[in-house]
Amino acid sequence: MKTRRWLSKDEDPLRQGVSAAQKAIEAAKLSVTDIDLVLNASGTPMQAIPDGGALIAAELGMRGKFAFSVHATCISFLVAFQQAALYLDSGRAEHILIVSTEAGSRGLNFNQPESALLIGDAAVAVVVSKPVNEDQRIVASGFSTDIHGIHDAEIRGFGSRLRVDNAADHLDDFKFDMQGLKLLRGAISWFPPFLESVRPGLSTSAEGVDRVIPHQTSKAGMEMMARFWGWEKMVVTLGDVGNTIAASIPLALHRAGMEQGETALLVGTGSGTHYGALIVQW
Q1: Is the pTM of this model over 0.85?
Q2: Which of 25, 100, 146, 259 could make an S-S bridge to 273, C-beta 3.0–4.6 Å?
Q3: CA dihedral 215, 220, 222, 224 (to 10 degrees)
Q4: In angstroms, rounded to a whole number, what is the distance separating the alpha carbons of residues 67 and 36?
Q5: What are the angstrom distances between the C-alpha of 261 and each of 126, 130, 163?
Q6: Where is the Beta-ketoacyl-[acyl-carrier-protein] synthase III C-terminal domain (predicted)?
Q7: d(Cα 212, Cα 159) in Å, to the nearest integer?
Q8: Mean of the per-residue pLDDT values for the chain?
Q9: Is the pLDDT of residue 213 over 80?
C-alpha cells in the first residue's frame, strides 16, 4: 500500500458524504427533488442518533422522503444496492441515492499497526435508477454471516453495552480491534463455499464476468481473491487509498468505468464476519 487519506481533525464525514451525494445526483442529470429514497451505507456511523441517513437528507434539504441506514460493516454498500433493487422492482421508487462515507481513521488503535496503517477515509455516492432495459439487472446475489468470526474485527464501545462515563478506564474498547490472521484463515475456509452458493463455479472462475469489484481488505485478502479469479479482471484500489471500509467497493466500481452490457461481480467480506456478492449486468 503506497498511500491512503485521512480526514483532518476539522473535516466532517457528513460534509464529505453530502459532497459526494451532490456530485452523484449531478452526474445522473437529476435534482435532489428527483430522489425518492436515501440509503446511508457506511461502516463508521457519524453519530448514534439521529440516523446517518436522516443527517444526509437534512444536509441535502430533502423533506418528506425516507432516509435510513443499512449497516453491514464493510459490505454495507452491497446490502444497500440489493435493497435499492428491491425498491425499484416493487415500483416504490425510481431514483435511490446510496452514500458510503467513512472516517475510520478516527477510531484506530495505533498500538495495532496492521490495521492502523491499512484504513483510509473516503466518501462515495451512487444514484441507482430504474433500468432502461430488461438486461440491466442483478443476475445473482448472496449474503451470509459466519458467526465464528464475530469478535475478530470489532469496536466494542459507542453502544449500550459499555458505559461512556467509564470510557477512560477502557479506551481500547472504543478503538478498532482487528485480528487479521484469524480473519484471513476464516475467509479461506468459509468464502469458497459461500461463493459456490451464489453461483456454482464462482470460487474458481469469473467466466461471464467482465470485471471483479472486490472489497479492498488487505494485501493478503486481495491475493486470496486473485487465486479465485486472477488479477486481470480485478479492480484494485488498495495501494492508492487503503481499505476504505464500505466505500471501497463503490470507489473501485467508479474506477472500473463499467459500460452498458458489461457484467461485474461486486464481492466482499466484512466484520461479523459477513460475506456478500452481487453479479450485476450494466
Answers
A1: yes
A2: 146
A3: -110
A4: 9
A5: 19, 16, 52
A6: 205-282
A7: 35
A8: 95
A9: yes
